[in-house]
Each structure stands twice: as C-alpha cells, then as structure tokens.
Amino acid sequence: MKKDLFDVNNVMQALKKCLPTEQGKIGLHEPHFGGNEWKYVKDCLDTGWVSSVGKYVDQFEQELAAYTGVKKAVAVVNGTAALHVALKLAGVIKDDEVIVPTLTFIATTNAITYCGAMPHFADSEERTLGLDPYKLAEYLKDITEVRDNSCFNKKTGRRIKAVVPMHTFGHPVDLDPLVEVCQRFKLELIEDAAESLGSFYKGRHTGNWGKLSTLSFNGNKTITTGGGGAILTNDEELGKMAKYITTTAKVPHKWNFYHDQIGFNYRLPNINAALGCAQLEQLPGFLARKRVLAQKYKACFSSVIGVDFFQEPAFAQSNYWLNALILEGSYKKYRDAILESTNNCGIMTRPVWILMHKLPMFLACPKMDVSVAEELENRIINIPSSVFL
Amino acid sequence: MKKDLFDVNNVMQALKKCLPTEQGKIGLHEPHFGGNEWKYVKDCLDTGWVSSVGKYVDQFEQELAAYTGVKKAVAVVNGTAALHVALKLAGVIKDDEVIVPTLTFIATTNAITYCGAMPHFADSEERTLGLDPYKLAEYLKDITEVRDNSCFNKKTGRRIKAVVPMHTFGHPVDLDPLVEVCQRFKLELIEDAAESLGSFYKGRHTGNWGKLSTLSFNGNKTITTGGGGAILTNDEELGKMAKYITTTAKVPHKWNFYHDQIGFNYRLPNINAALGCAQLEQLPGFLARKRVLAQKYKACFSSVIGVDFFQEPAFAQSNYWLNALILEGSYKKYRDAILESTNNCGIMTRPVWILMHKLPMFLACPKMDVSVAEELENRIINIPSSVFL
Description:
The structure is a homodimer.
Chain A: H1 8-18, H2 37-47, H3 55-68, E1 72-76, H4 79-89, E2 97-101, H5 106-114, E3 118-122, H6 133-143, E4 144-147, E5 150-153, E6 159-163, H7 175-185, E7 188-192, E8 200-201, E9 204-205, E10 212-216, E11 229-233, H8 236-245, H9 270-281, H10 283-301, E12 307-309, E13 316-317, E14 324-327, H11 335-344, E15 350-351, H12 371-377, E16 380-382
Parallel strand pairs in A: 2-3, 2-6, 6-7, 7-10
Antiparallel strand pairs in A: 1-11, 4-5, 5-6, 8-9, 8-13, 10-11, 12-14, 14-16, 15-16
C-alpha cells in the first residue's frame, strides 16, 4: 500500500509563509479603501445627492464601460438584480430552461427562477473550474432539437433559451468554443462575470462575449460599492432598455408619472456609486497586488504534496479574485480537516459552494452528467485573497 | 353665469410667502444631512464594514422597530423590494388577486406582479386620499364569495389574497374599518407605509395594523439611506423569515453554503444603514419642522380661492411627508397652468401619479368604480416639503 504523504500541517505552514498572520485574524476577502472613497462619499453628503440619480452613477457607468470595453454599463443594487434583468432582456420567459453550471454561487440560479424559468445544470471542467463547452455541446446534440430558430429539450418539451457561464473565482471559462455552442444551438449567452472584473480572455475583458453580462460589487469582491452590480452589453438598445427597466420604466416628462412597462427599481444609489468610482481608480493596483499574492501562493504550495494552487487558464489573464487550492483526488478526504485547522487558527478558508442540483429547491431540475463538478466540489478550498495581504 | 374667481397668481403668491425663494430653485423633497451622517459613514469606511452585514444594519433595524412599535424590522434595498417580500410572506402567489388603490405610486402595483399576482384596483376617499374601506366593503360583498377561509372573485374565479393600502403623502388611511373588512373577507392586510414614517393612526404608528408593512428610505422620503426600505411585522416568525429570504436563505454553518429556499439578496448595505441611523436620530426634529411648514401653508392658502391645503385626517397625526394642494372640482382645469408657472419660476411642484388602471400593463386588471380617484387625479398638486424649508 502506498504511504499517505499528506500532512495538514504542511498546508498550514505554506499559508503562514504567505500571510501576515502576526496581524491577527485574516479574512477571505475584505475591502480596502485607500483612495478617494471618503472624498467622493463626502461630496454626496455635502451636495445632498445620495439617491438614485447623481453624477457618480453616470461616471461609474461610463468608467465601467470604458474599462471592460463594452458599449454600455448599467449600475444596479447587486449582482443578483443584474442577472435577473440580463436574463429578462435576453428573452428568458416563464417555463424556459436556462443552462447553468451546477458549480456556481446561488445568485446565478436564483435569478433564473425570478424569470419563472428553470435551471438546467451543466458540468464544469478542471482547467477553468467553469462550464465545459465541449461536454455541453455533446450533451445538447443528444437531448435537443433546433426548430424555428429555437432550441428545445426533447425530454421536457421546454425551450432552452440561454446559457449562463460563471467565471469561477475570476478565472474565465473557455469562451470561444462556448460562443460556438450557443450559435449552433440558438442559445443566448449571458456571462455571469460577478467574480471576474479585471479578468481577460484572450486579451479582451470578460463580459464581452455575452449578449448581456453582469458584474457584482458586493463587499467581498475585487472592488466594492457596499452592495452593487452592473449589467454590461454591447447592444446599445438593450443597454437603454436595461437602464429603463432597472428604474421604474417612467416615460420622460416634465412632471407626469407615466410608466409603460413593469420596472424593477434596481437602481444603485449615488452614494454607493461614489464608492465604486473611488474603488475603480484603484483597480489596476489591486489587480497587481493580487497577482503578487497569487505568485507567492504558487511558490509556497509548489512543494506541498497533494495540493495544487489553482492558476489561470492558458488563454486568460485572471484577476485571482478568490485564490483556490485544489486537493488531489486521493486527498480530498482531508478537506474538512484543513478547513477546521485553518479557521481555528484565524486564517479564514472555505469550501466551494454546494452544487446547485443538490439544493432542495432545484432537485427536480434537469441536468447532464455533472461528475467533474461533483469531484471538484470536495477538492476546492478558497484561501485569503484580500488586496492588502 | 358665476364669475370665475380663480387666479393662478394667488397660488404663486401664497407659495412664495411660505418658501425661501431668494435661495434659488426649491425642490419637492430634498434630503437634509445635519447630524451624524458623516461620522457613521466614515466609521464604515475606516473599519471596512460597508457591505451586507454590519453593526449599523442591526442598529437601524432595532431602532426602526422601537420607533414604529413593531416587533421586528428588516432593512432592505428599497421600498419596492420590501413590498415584494411582504406580499410573498403574506402568502400571495401566482394568479392571486391583490386589492390596491388605483391612486398609488407604481411600486405598490409592480410588487404585486413580481409575485405573479394581479392587481385589483380600488377607489380612494377624499378624507385620506387613500383606500376607502367602506366603499371596498360594499364592493367585495357584491363580487366575492368566502369559502374555505379564502375570498374568491366570483367574476374571475381567482382568489383575492390581500389588500395593500398606501398611506398617501404620509396621511394614514382609516385603518380600523379596513381591518374589519379584511377580517370579514379573509384578506391579509399589508400596509404600504413607504410615505408614512412618523405618521400615527389613533396614537399608534402606521405599519402596526398589517400582517406585514413596508417603509421606504428613498432620497425623497422623510429620512433617506440613499436607497432603502424596510419590512415591519409584529409576527416574530414572519420577521425571521423576512430576514432570511432577503439574504440568500443560507442555513447557518461555519463554512458550508447550503441554501434551502429561493432568496432575494435584498439586503441593505451597512454604509446605507449608517446613513439611516444618523437620519433616524433627527426624525423627531424633521417631523416638527414639517408640521411648522404645513401650518404655514395652511395659513397662507386659507385665503386663496379654489384651493385647499390638504390636512391630516381627524384620527391621525401625519408626517406631512409631501404637502398637497387640492383644487376645488370646478378649478381642476387650472392644474397644468399652476404646474407650469410654479416649475417655470423655480418652485418645484408635481401632479399626483397617473392612476394605475390607466397604465398600459394594467389595463386588463379588474377594478371597482374608481370615480373618486379619477376626480382626485386632476385636483392634486404636490408642493415643496423638504425639512429644511
């Protein structure tokens, strides 16, 4: 019998080598306010412009669009709201199915249900931790039929309208083959780029491949607005519509309140956008520091048996939003011991999300073989990733 | 023929007598930050606690509950989100009907549609500008049938699940008879108290009569959090559930992400709650000043022919959130001339909302006779109401 060479202490030691543990408890991803945050927020208070209209909202949207290279960015209250509206504008309606990786955060899946649609779970690949486009293509070939320019699930009879990949921990999925799959099967692509602000696929920012894409600025993200998100699109008409229905869908008039469709009041307040403007100015510095930390982790874990530090796919430049260790398959049984010992000594770590198809409200949803995701679920450990570490 | 004694200039003169017009343009309702806003917001930035968990969220919720006298308050991103969750927790589901005044802001009606339910429009009364409980009772007697402890619309066959009165401009509807109607017809009562923080019905704060109630802290409200709202309830179990589903419905665990139902990620960020805490400290002062302004308006308009300054109903102490002039019926033709001339000279005024049953997305919804609301729609003009005026 082969000797088990795994030692939880080696993981602890490697982490301690990379982290300033003398400073006390180390969180997973904490915000850092080192720029104009206070100045801009104070400006909101001084001028009274704190609410749903204001110059920081406009500025934040323009700067987000410029940075990501899309034509239009619309700031909203959070990433979940952004996903809801993106799905709606992509044409997802009641009783549609939407392909989504089972290995994702709950928001991606919840947003599908807000449209009255049903998640249809897909597998991920080890290379990206995100949706596997090749395996998806094989699966869709088997179970779908394309007619009238739409894709139908032959088993359920429902239309499959869209695919929502999520760029896990900031690492881009393989977008080129995924775009091909979407074209071939007449599916709309919506990128959940909540975790990938600052991540590039083949030199271009994530969020540029989907018909619409979404960002998140929650407190644990690379930049934060307290709570916040954005819808990105290169379709100017959809961009205008996104702005319109994330307010109250009021037809402009000097005083009349005429609304011509259901709106969602998902507007990001100006005071939160002010925070976003200040954070965005620091993004290049944040990304540089995050790469330094990732390099440190890479070096420290290179000699630890049974654990790999997850690195960006070859086609990508990742933001390394949330750093991840991947246990080798035979050592996954140590996952909880590592989580216990690291958290107990003040280094916050966590496992990946429980797979979506296992949650009680999604048990009846259709799914493909998700064996890679099932294997990954027990092998991933996220480790501290704040920009100031 | 009776001589027309109305003169738009008299309205202008009365407004000018009450308002500091020498200071330039006067908005309808602008926020006022005269307390600890900077201090608390800066504390969030200094400590890094800006996002969805934090001491100001807890404090704001506790202080809101204490002030309004309810058992539990849950802070959320805005009043629309609060309504959505309140309706859901009151048991409103797909294909239900929900009674709502046609004279209300779009949020009340939109939130009903988020549940897949259908608005059923009711009339208002002149005394409160809100839902008329007596007229509603007569109507329900005709068109409904109560069986199995539920109320059914005999015409449409649909269940009528709830009634959502809205306390227009801060003036409480007549809650006692409305509670009776709800009990008699087995309907849940949800108070849309978005506009009525600081308004009392027979000595008790609005929001205490509904199974759940909602507040708004939008930029134009009596106190603001930038964007924000709250769910109020005296049912502790519902309060806990409101908190749970306005997050991601994650079962507490030291690291596992197990969600056991669909959540909505409607959390109010800590930085916005910080603003709310500072604003709430000033609420008694704000209300006192608003009463002074209302008294001024009352005095100045007492001698203007054809216009009444709207005063709180006899059973209520109102917050006078948004002051209103009511044109006498024969003078409603002057409404637009008044709006034109006031707005042109920098005194912002506005008409009431276009009635909900006239908006294109609600044309097919059931409604009772709404002739009082239709008359009021053309007679109301809101006038400047900021606390610092």
